[in-house]
From TrEMBL:
Domain of life assignment: Bacteria
Protein name stated in the entry: Cytochrome C
Chain ranges of the Fido domain: 179-327
Annotated Pfam families: Fic (PF02661), Virulence_RhuM (PF13310)
Residue spans crossing the bilayer: none
InterPro entries: Fido (IPR003812), Fido-like_dom_sf (IPR036597), Type_II_TA_Toxin (IPR053737), Virulence_RhuM-like (IPR011204)
SUPFAM superfamilies reported for this sequence: Fic-like (SSF140931)
Length: 334
């Protein structure tokens, strides 16, 4: 399976929090690892593992047809370790869902039954969903701008940057209407992109922190790691799925780096400023900070406005934000 064959979809949503998985277009299924299954059904991994063992022991499913191996890179102390994890397909997910005893699993069963009923009686559930997504995508992107424009945190300078984003990249919003079989398209992107190691990112942030503290613009809490948040984030961005990079382009890595640092809060303080700094640092490391004419891909004020736009966005609009950032970065690629 290639990275291009994957598309993010939601298989279940509760209280506005959707479980996002990747669609394997080659095999028409989705995949979750053991940790994701545990989170989906609100049970310990040991409980999920026991149910899976019984499913295969009783012959309900064939293990070889429903389990796949995936290589992932994890930061363990000073070492980056490559490990193989098992992923379970939709058949296994549903089977576990009908065995687990939890309120979350009950709601999953209710959801699955409703979706099945709609497919059997109406036959157009998926088409209706895609139609609605197509119609709402552009509106969602513009709604994000409107919401950010009303934020008390938006000063005059950032406001000008927000206008700059809309005016300079109006075509981006039009691109968001283009779909391939109902899915948003991504721009032609530059394959690759080298992420900094944790040590490199940490050293760069420490230099920024020292500079800001010397000017009285930050405290000692600025960019201080909260657990292994930054380590895990960088490791996830560098992982592979079925032998292909999960984030195969410079644009994809840059967009997700900015988004995840803002949204996941890996630092005790200064997450938005740290996110913007790491975003620029990544572009610089990969020769993408300047466009073909030697101008910055995005100026300081525009970057501040973009970071605020990400912070103000609803998590449900994540893919809209990611594609917006990617299209902005790819705008001057010939």
């Amino acid at each position: 399976m290639t990275a291009e064959s994957q598309a993010p979809i939601h298989i279940f949503e509760e209280a506005g929090k959707a479980v996002e998985v990747r669609l394997d277009a080659d095999h028409e299924t989705v995949w979750l690892n053991l940790q994701q299954l545990a989170e989906l059904f609100d049970r310990d991994k040991s409980v999920i593992s026991r149910h899976l063992s019984n499913i295969y022991k009783e012959g309900e499913l064939a293990r070889e047809a429903t389990v796949a191996k995936n290589a992932t890179v994890q930061q363990e102390g000073a070492r980056r370790v490559r490990r193989m994890i098992e992923l379970y397909n939709l058949d296994a997910i549903i089977s576990v869902g009908y065995r687990v005893n939890s309120s979350r699993a009950t709601r999953f069963r209710q959801w699955a039954t409703r979706v099945l009923r709609e497919h059997l009686t109406q036959g157009w559930t998926l088409n209706r969903q895609r139609f609605e997504e197509n119609a709402q995508e552009l509106e969602a992107a513009l709604a994000l701008v409107r919401k950010a424009a009303q934020s008390p945190a938006l000063d005059a300078g950032s406001g000008r940057g927000l206008v700059d984003i809309v005016s300079r990249y109006a075509q981006t919003f039009l691109l968001l209407q283009r779909y391939d079989e109902g899915l948003l398209t991504e721009p032609r992107a530059q394959t690759g992109g080298t992420l900094p190691s944790w040590e490199q990112a940490r050293a760069a942030l420490d230099g920024l922190k020292a500079d800001l503290m010397a000017r009285g613009e930050a405290t000692d809490l600025f960019a201080r790691d909260r657990g292994d948040g930054l380590t895990s984030l960088l490791g996830n961005l560098d992982q592979s799925v079925f032998g292909e990079p999960a984030y195969p382009s410079v644009e994809s890595k840059a967009a997700h780096l900015l988004y995840f640092v803002v949204k996941n809060h890996p630092f005790s303080d200064g997450n938005k400023r740290s996110a913007a700094f790491l975003f620029v640092d990544f572009l610089h490391r990969n020769g993408r900070l300047l466009d073909g004419s030697g101008e910055p891909m995005i100026n300081d004020v525009g970057l501040a406005a973009l970071t605020l736009l990400v912070a103000e966005s609803d998590p449900a609009n994540k893919e809209t934000m990611i594609r917006l950032i990617m299209n902005m970065l790819a705008g001057d690629q010939g």
